[in-house]
Design brief:
Oligomer: single chain
Number of strands: 13
Distance between the termini: 14 Å
Strand order of the largest sheet: 3-2-1-4-5-6-7
CATH superfamily of the largest domain: Glycogen Phosphorylase B
Radius of gyration: 21 Å
Number of domains: 2
Largest sheet: 7 strands, parallel
Helix content: 40-55%
CATH topology of the largest domain: Rossmann fold
């Protein structure tokens, strides 16, 4: 059985859920061993898959009187991460036949790719978006702070590029990401689309629909929750739905901004932090629709989970969403304006026939096009060919 080392440093959220999905699906056919630095989410609950955690010092961000030296501190932290990656690579080179590398929090393409001397595949979930999409994602709005962070960004860009170019094969999960990888790194990649467990994410006859809308994603400005609030605020008060926001992480102070905006627009909002998948499934089932307003989302598990639960989706016509949502067949796509989003939302709220059509088409799409087995089998073929 081929020995495959899996390296990652993923936080909670969609990325680690994708990795767990693949680990579980690949474990019968490969001898998997997961390697991760401290601070990463656990990638497996399977006893047959061993997981090694490596010490990673200097992970906590500086606060208080140390905050002015944060840029230097972050550079030292990144260099420390590079040293950890070298140690992990030394171990993997001795014990594995090939390596599957996923993204890491300190830098998108982890520098372990620079130290491997066995075949490697890099599953690129995303590139350093704060570097290549400054119009969407900014670390800070302060000009002095942005200038202070420039040396760190140069180092991040250098490490990410060199690591990506050292991978023997690059994998990604959408046409959008495939084109961005070509534009940024001048490298071709192969698409492996993660699927959805439609036995878990499924409709429930016992769960009735409420007059509510769901928005899922970290409490960060580019995740589109503000747009969701503005869309709902344009619906007539007598039929205006409540909004539920589900998140696993929060940009400091952003929750209060959302609450304040909702109050101004007379939108009732409830924010759920770090809930279980069972609780998330219940919110999917109860919602009349799910709003996916994330900017340039690389793939998007949220609309797929929503479809699997029988709930229609309204999403931005950009990023990876267009790979999974066929307009007016299994969901709606719109241009990002609150007015157009509200028009589609009103249609769903007032037209039960549209909801039934979207429910049937969405479930069918998941079963036929986005099953877990399809993605896992393709990834297995790639690993076997390394």
């Amino acid at each position: 059985m081929k020995k495959i080392a899996v390296f990652h440093m993923l936080p909670s959220g969609g990325g680690i859920r994708v990795l767990r999905q693949f680990v579980e699906g690949l474990s019968p056919d490969f001898d998997l061993h997961i390697h991760q630095p401290e601070g990463a989410s656990s990638a497996t609950n399977i006893s047959a898959v061993e997981e090694t955690v490596y010490p990673y010092p200097m992970w906590k961000k500086p606060r208080g009187y140390l905050r002015p030296v944060a840029p230097l501190f972050l550079i030292l932290r990144l260099l420390s991460f590079k040293r950890v990656c070298r140690r992990v690579a030394d171990n993997i080179n001795r014990t594995a036949d090939a390596v599957l590398v996923h993204n890491a929090m300190p830098v998108a393409a982890p520098p372990i790719l620079q130290f491997l001397n066995i075949p490697s595949a890099y599953f690129c979930y995303e590139y350093p978006r704060h570097i290549f999409e400054k119009d969407i994602i900014q670390r800070t709005k302060s000009l002095p702070a942005r200038l202070a962070l420039l040396p760190l960004e140069r180092l991040e860009k250098c490490i990410d590029r060199k690591s990506t170019l050292n991978a023997d094969k690059i994998i990604t999960f959408s046409n959008y990401m495939q084109q961005r990888i070509r534009d940024i790194y001048n490298r071709d990649s192969v698409i492996v689309r993660p699927g959805i467990d439609d036995s878990f994410f499924s409709p429930s006859p016992a769960t009735g629909k409420e007059n509510s809308v769901l928005s899922v994603g970290a409490l960060w400005p580019f995740k589109g929750h503000e747009t969701a609030i503005r869309i709902i605020g344009l619906i007539q008060p007598e039929i205006r739905p409540n909004l539920h926001i589900v998140a696993d992480r929060e940009y400091p102070g952003y929750r209060m901004q959302l609450v304040s905006l909702a109050q101004d627009l007379s939108v009732k909002v409830t924010i759920h932090l770090n809930i279980s998948d069972i609780e998330l499934r219940e919110l999917y089932r109860r919602a009349k629709t799910v709003l996916c307003c994330q900017r340039q989302e690389p793939y998007g598990l949220v609309p797929l989970e929503s479809m699997a639960c029988g709930t229609p989706v309204i999403a931005l016509r950009e990023g990876g969403f267009v790979d999974n949502i066929i307009h007016r067949r299994n969901g709606f796509l719109f241009d990002g304006s609150a007015e157009k989003g509200a028009e589609l939302l009103f249609q769903l709220l007032s037209d039960k026939a549209s909801i039934r059509k979207m429910t049937i088409s969405g479930r069918k799409f998941i079963k036929q096009e986005r099953s877990i087995a399809m993605g896992t089998n393709k990834l297995g073929e790639i690993l076997e060919s390394l």
